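Predict structure. Chain length: 78.
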Amino acid sequence: MALFKLEISLPDRPGALGLLASAIGAAGADIRGLTVLKSEDGRGYDEVTVAVPGSDPTDLIEVLGAIGGVEVISFNAL
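Prediction complete.
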């Protein structure tokens, strides 16, 4: 598994982070760390470290991008 750090923006409402975590698991990735960066204008900004099967996070990025209101701002290999 390869480690990636994702910066994500999502709606700042109850259940949004849980939905994100469920989608990460459904894509076969494992959350290794989570930092809430800030909340402003109804959006939450989080940094999530994930272990992804193989070395390509493309499938995970596509799954997260398909969730309404979720935006992957950046991702970097660790």
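Summary: The chain has a mean pLDDT of 95.
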